[in-house]
Amino acid sequence: MQTIPASKQPTKSILERTVGQKPGSLNISPEALVPRLFLVSFDEEWYEAREFSDYDELMEAYREAPEARHWIDVRGYGNRELLERMMVDFQIHPLQMEDVVNDYQRPKIEEERNRMFIVSRMITFTPDKKIDDDQLSLFTGENYVLTFQSDYEDCLDILRERIKGGKGAIRRKPVMYLAYAILDVVLDNYFPAMAQMGEYAEDLEDCLFRNPNKELLSQILDLKREVVKIRRIVWPERDKINEILRMDDQMVPHELKLYFKDIYDHCVQLMDLVDNYRETTSSLTDLYLSNVSNRMNEVMKVLTMISTIFIPLSFIVGVYGMNFSREDPEGGINPLNMPELYQPYGYVTLLGFMALVVIGMVYYFYRKGWLTKD
């Protein structure tokens, strides 16, 4: 089961309404953004990109160029009527539109009537060291690619600039190539996020050697959870691309499968990175516990040496603290009872002897190397 980010979790009221409802019901979150409508139309010689405030105007512009290729981009879900109209115009199944609106789906692909419904997740590594993932829902048609996303900002601006500049093969290839290009850019943006995660792991490792503390352990465990989260995203992404490669040539032309094979290779590389980061975070935890244990051992060594030094001193002081009288009640002398009590330099002599004991023990510890750090 995929972990749902806190910022992406449906509110309690949404969950209550979905219980028992018929499949395909559109439950729009109260926090959903007002939809913004974008249309990018192009062929080898012509290009046009516009934002529309009215859906009818967008559809009119789309229908005016049936021979061109179109990218219809909807950002925001906060208009049920608009989504229902698009379901009719683009023949979207209610269950698929339900997956679009409930934007915490795992990456997947569905094939229906020579069209595809693809779910991907766009990720970024935020300044607070968390993985933020947004859903990108994509539908393919004969001459269009239709995308839905919940936020206004995404990682696809670089692709829009490529289409505008006529760079690459996007303007010449069939519309399925545009779908590939979108998925390719989404997955390419995983690598910077993973690199930032790796740099953060290295910073945590450096901090571990300087000052291991509970706050640092908490950061390591948080990073470990983020690695698990991104693994749950990358794994189905790989399965999704593998399923595309197994489709017949009518759905995905043979010459385009080579491009999707390149995406599959990217997914494999990402899985290798994720596995490396899993091992890194586990080793960081072990390193923290080892450092804490070493620090505790150093403390215990110091305390043990102090106790060892004071054991003979305590014995000497205890012996001379015994109250055996030098003289008996009849005035006689007990020669074996503390004869040093009447020595004029007995106190100084005893202190000097105790000092020699301390110096001798410290020298012994030094020769053994116990006073130096490993």
Describe this structure in words.
- This protein has 374 residues and is an alpha+beta fold.
- It folds into three domains: 16-166, Beta Polymerase, domain 2 (2-Layer Sandwich), CATH 3.30.460; 189-300, Magnesium transport protein CorA, transmembrane region (Methane Monooxygenase Hydroxylase, Chain G, domain 1), CATH 1.20.58.340; 322-368.
- The chain is built from ten helices and seven strands.
- A seven-stranded mixed beta sheet has the order 2-1-3-7-6-5-4, sandwiched between helices.
- The longest helix is centred in the C-terminal third of the chain and has 67 residues, at 254-320.
- The two termini are 47 Å apart.
- 24% of the residues are buried.
Q: Can you tag this structure with a few keywords?
A:
10 helices; disordered N terminus; 3 domains; Methane Monooxygenase Hydroxylase, Chain G, domain 1; 374 residues; Beta Polymerase, domain 2; 7 strands; alpha+beta; seven-stranded mixed β-sheet
Write the layout of secondary structure elements.
Elements: H1 12-18, E1 36-42, E2 47-52, H2 55-63, E3 69-75, H3 80-89, H4 94-101, E4 108-112, E5 115-125, E6 131-140, E7 144-149, H5 157-165, H6 175-188, H7 190-210, H8 214-245, H9 254-320, H10 346-368
Parallel strand pairs: 3-7
Antiparallel strand pairs: 1-2, 1-3, 4-5, 5-6, 6-7
Which residues form runs of ≥5 with pLDDT under 50? Answer: 1-16
- Predict the CATH topology of the largest domain: Beta Polymerase, domain 2
Tell me the number of strands: 7
- The tally of helices reads 10
Name the CATH superfamily classification of the largest domain. CorA soluble domain-like
The topology string of helices and strands comes to HEEHEHHEEEEHHHHHH
- Strand residue content: 5-15%
Mean pLDDT: 86
Approximate shape: rod-shaped
